[in-house]
Amino acid sequence: xxxxxxxxxxxxxxxxxxxxxxxxxxxxxxxxxxxxxxxxxxxxxxxxxxxxxxxxxxxxxxxxxxxxxxxxxxxxxxxxxxxxxxxxxxxxxxxxxxxxxxxxxxxxxxxxxxxxxxxxxxxxxxxxxxxxxxxxxxxxxxxxxxxxxxxxxxxxxxxxxxxxxxxxxxxxxxxxxxxxxxxxxxxxxxxxxxxxxxxxxxxxxxxxxxxxxxxxxxxxxxxxxxxxxxxxxxxxxxxxxxxxxxxxxxxxxxxxxxxxxxxxxxxxxxxxxxxxxxxxxxxxxxxxxxxxxxxxxxxxxxxxxxxxxxxxxxxxxxxxxxxxxxxxxxxxxxxxxxxxxxxxxxxxxxxxxxxxxxxxxxxxxxxxxxxxxxxxxxxxxxxx
Length: 384
Fold this sequence. Notes:
With 384 residues, the chain is mostly beta strands. The chain has 2 helices and 21 strands. The strands form 4 sheets. Strands 2, 4, 5, 6, 8, 9 and 10 form a 7-stranded mixed sheet that branches. Strands 13, 15, 16, 18, 19 and 20 form a 6-stranded mixed sheet that branches. A 4-stranded antiparallel sheet has the order 7-3-1-21, with no helix packed on it.
């Protein structure tokens, strides 16, 4: 019996990075399990490949160029041929060329041999995503076979983040060199270092934007957002100012949401609604207050904004304000510290609700940081 184990150096990568996977083959035949010639176990070959599968909800999405009489790619083929996507749902939208790890491997009892599989994740790869109607998932697949036996497949999942426009030279105009006396230093860094610098520069720029919140009856207040671009893992911080408001706001709720827009040519129904997914929420009562604030964390497991031929994912802050239809008397404040006062609010209040959506930009983060909290297992094994 041979145990095949594949182990990744981490579970989250940027598109364009080099993925490294150590594949080990160990002869774990038990002592005395058979005749003496069973001490040696052999495999005919082993290959490795990484691929991305896209699965869609057939009730909401029409696959581009869909033919109802044709099975999705990767679902057919002989069981003695290396087809990494065999048994996987959906369509293979990206696959690298298979690499041969060895041919005709022989192992003594207890012997282990390891091979290093290295592959560049294409920069045009879509990001990993699990939405309502579309899913993109990545795996490294190791295929191996004994002579005269079916091919066995070992898969290790991983996550891909995409930083767009890294190949655009204008991006680097905004990235200051770490040492101003070394003009070419920034071109010598790895893709991970360059991407981290670009993300830090874009999301670190403070540019407060003030929004006037109004309806047909007057001013509700002002909302300040201190920047408009964030990385996954960041906190979104905003403040409210109700000074001078003519419409009393009793309470508000802010929800961080992602929007899943299916391309028009891929929609099953032309009138189907945009799917939203909520991640974090802030709720606060604000009647008779002058100021308020909110903090919304962006989970590291969330997928940043992206666009493909099938789906576009955007992010927004969804506001819901509960407004009083008429002025509400304020409590009388005590004139000195020794006095106290009690305010009894009205038993019923006529209210209406106002909804507002504010688009924001959510970008990837350093994959090392995302790996630290990832729930994806970095290794897997099978017995051949």
